Amino acid sequence: MWNNLPVDLLSNIFFFLSPDSFAFANATCRNWHQACAYSASLKNQFLLLKQLHPPWFVALPLRNNTLSCYVRNPTSTNNNWYELSLDFLPHPIRLLAHLDEGLLLVRPSISTVLQLGLCNPFTRQYKQLPVLNIRRTNPAVGVISLPNTNKFETDSFPRFEVYVAGGMSEAPRGGATYEPTLEMYDPQLNAWRIVGSMPMEFAVRLTVWTPKESVYCDGVLYWTTSARAYSLMGYNISKNTWRELSVPMADKLEFAVLVLRNGRVTLVGGTCELGACIWELGEGESWVMVEKVPKELGMRFTGKKGSWDRTKCVGSDGAIFLYSDLWAGMVVWREVVEGNSNWEWFWIEGCSKIRGKQVRNFQLKGVLVHPNLVPSAIF
User: Fold this and answer.
1) What structural domains does the chain harbor?
2) I want to staple 313 with a disulfide (CB 3.0 to 4.6 A). Which of 91, 104, 268, 360 is the partner?
3) 3-state class (DSSP) for residue 319
């Protein structure tokens, strides 16, 4: 019976499969492979996948030069962790950010001068972006995912922008200087252009004390500084203006990470005494504490040292993950009843073995991604 079903009917059924089940269906037989590849369904499948299934946690080494990444399937009941080979890449990479289309923004780990690329580890596709107009070392990088006006076209082009701010560049008379400009990558033109400037003091702080994570909300691209006292730096894209905002407990936090949760700028940070807390940026640029990591989970996460200083964080509309290295467990605050503001805390085991074989531990950089098994038009 299944072998005789029309391709379009099979495609509609495959809409509702999770990424791993969709991959199995794709490899079952020629008829099902044709249904999975049916041009009218591919884009819809990814859109429905995002609505019906939670994102996967994708982890890459923070510093180690390796051509592998590790992914956690949130719906699997047995082996949640998998190792994906990145041997299709020309060189080891470091993870910077992700895009809504399931793409990763990466940079080579072997170069100090910034060179960016796009990667889909599930379809094994990679594209190196053009060289920036200005050679920069250690700038801040921000990503904006834009609404797609052609949601139901399979060949629609991913809509996003990449911003690069600050960094060190070559001085006119030799040596190096801080670069007080911004560049933006337009995927439609496959080109960079200078789009703005900033005060020199902001260029210094973006270069020296700002991590690569960014959050975009209501027309403003935000970064946190990475040294005490912490602060928030925002760039209004349409007005080409900069501003600096304070953060709660700025001089006491052992870590501070920005995420976007339910459309709000959210700060996750903590200390030994207070534990890890979550604040949201409200009206009037005021911070409101909305949650705190339960004491038992906090003690399990930090161990005997009781310190949060090596904690990293990644978030989405439906979950916030606190993590440190591959072996260590993760503390997760996630939505359990969609639309009812019902969030609960969970503990997720780390990845020390895959299929009974021990894997190497490392400090990691993680993102939450909906795996996209559809080859992108951008590659």
Assistant:
1) 1-53 (no CATH), 54-369 (2.120.10.80)
2) 268
3) strand
Give the lowest-confidence range in 77-81, 89-93, 142-146, 223-227: 77-81
In whole angstroms, what is the distance from residue 188 CA to residue 146 CA? 12
Q: What share of the chain is helix, strand, coil (3-state, %, to 5)?
A: 15, 40, 45
HSE of 218, CA atoms in CB hemisphere, 13 A: 8
Question: By C-alpha distance, which of 239, 242, 42, 28 is closest to 155?
Answer: 42
Are residues 217 and 264 in contact, defined by beta-carbon separation less than 8 angstroms? Answer: yes
Query: What separation in angstroms does the CA of 109 have from each of 67, 106, 132, 228, 366?
Result: 11, 9, 17, 27, 16
Residue 361 burial (CB count, 10 A) = 15
Task: Indicate the burial class of 375 (C-beta count within 10 angstroms; 0-12, 13-18, 19 or more).
Answer: middle
Instruction: Give the residue-averaged pLDDT of 225-246.
Output: 89
In this structure, are residues 368 and 315 in contact, taking their beta carbons and an 8 Å threshold? Answer: yes
* Tally of CB atoms within 10 A around 377: 13
**By mean pLDDT, which of 3-12, 76-85, 223-232, 248-257 is the weakest?**
3-12
**Alpha helices, DSSP H, located in the chain:** 7-14, 19-26, 30-36, 42-52, 200-208, 295-302
Reported in sequence order, the residue ranges of 166-254 that DSSP labels E, i.e. its strands, are 168-170, 176-178, 181-186, 191-197, 215-217, 220-224, 231-236, 241-246
Region 135-143: what's the mean pLDDT? 94
Residue 136 φ then ψ, to 5°: -125, 145
Mean pLDDT of 295-323: 91
Mean pLDDT calculated for residue range 238-257: 92
Mean pLDDT of 147-175: 77
**HEC per residue, 83-123:** EEECCCCCCCEEEEEECCCCCEEEEECCCCECCCEEEECCC
User: What is the tens place of the pLDDT at every residue in 17-51?
Assistant: 666 666 666 666 666 656 555 543 455 555 556 66
